[in-house]
Specification:
The chain is an alpha/beta fold. The protein is built from 10 helices and 15 strands. The strands form 4 sheets. A 7-stranded parallel beta sheet has the order 6-5-4-9-12-14-15, with helices on both faces.
């Protein structure tokens, strides 16, 4: 089998099965695992998969820059945001992550809601300026322009000095095996710092993120209270997550 044919086979397998196990592919094609790994390296270099130990997973489309992501699945993000906004109780303190889904949550909060919103996103803070009863706390640090959020040591230190009832956290990849992932190491660390300061943490994930992975792990499943997604409730990945004990809140 030619290299181009192997690559096409791998991409087809990834689309059908949602993952590639290198040793199984090698056995099925009668080739060495080294050949499969080389093909996966090439595909990953082209942005066509995310390599993991023993194989590969679908790459999250949410790794594009902030402006581009605003046009990805806007309806799904709005559905997720609507459910997430319903979790915010009057008088409570909310840690709201940055990103396009979190921005949709900010816009979905009732304008007369009395609450405290803690965020490391200037975009989120600006979106809530016209909410007269929402008290805003903006955590500062180096701005990671890809997601328009503050990251780095200063931002993590600032996060350690707040406490909230609820954290609504965005990620770029949601996978039963890879867990919750994102594309930048410092952003992943910041997300962990935010989640650690809330009594409950729910993950915001529109359907294009389900079953995909990015390079850096954010949190294991046991560290979150649940997942909010517009993915079909009978989706195979959603069913796997429920089997792991994850609370999945449908936003369909």
């Amino acid at each position: 089998m030619l290299a181009a044919e192997r690559r096409a086979h791998l991409l087809g397998l990834l689309a059908r099965e949602g993952k590639i196990v290198a040793k199984d592919v090698a056995a099925g094609l009668g080739i060495s695992e080294d050949s499969v790994r080389r093909d996966l390296r090439d595909l990953a270099a082209e942005g066509l998969c995310q390599r993991v130990y023993g194989g590969a997973l679908p790459l999250s489309p949410a790794v594009a820059d902030y402006a581009a992501r605003q046009g990805v699945a806007p309806d799904g993000k709005q559905r997720v945001a609507s459910v997430a906004a319903g979790l915010v109780r009057p008088g409570s303190a909310l840690i709201l992550d940055g990103g396009t889904t979190a921005l949709a949550v900010a816009r979905a909060l009732p304008e007369d809601l009395a609450c405290t919103v803690i965020t490391h996103s200037p975009t989120i803070a600006a979106a809530l300026l016209d909410h007269p009863q929402a008290e805003l706390f903006l955590l500062g640090g180096r701005i990671f322009k890809h997601s328009a959020v503050a990251c780095g040591a200063a931002a993590v230190e600032a996060a350690q000095n707040v406490t909230a009832d609820l954290c609504l956290l965005g990620v770029t990849g949601v996978h039963p095996e890879a867990g919750l992932t994102t594309g930048d190491a410092e952003e992943a660390a910041m997300k962990r710092a935010l989640a650690a300061r809330a009594a409950e943490t729910y993950i915001l994930a529109s359907s294009e993120k389900i079953g995909t992975a990015s390079r850096f792990r954010v949190l294991p499943w046991e560290k979150v209270s649940g997942l909010i997604t517009d993915t079909d409730t009978h989706d195979a990945v959603v069913e796997q997550l429920r089997a792991l004990g994850v609370e999945v809140m449908a936003a369909g």
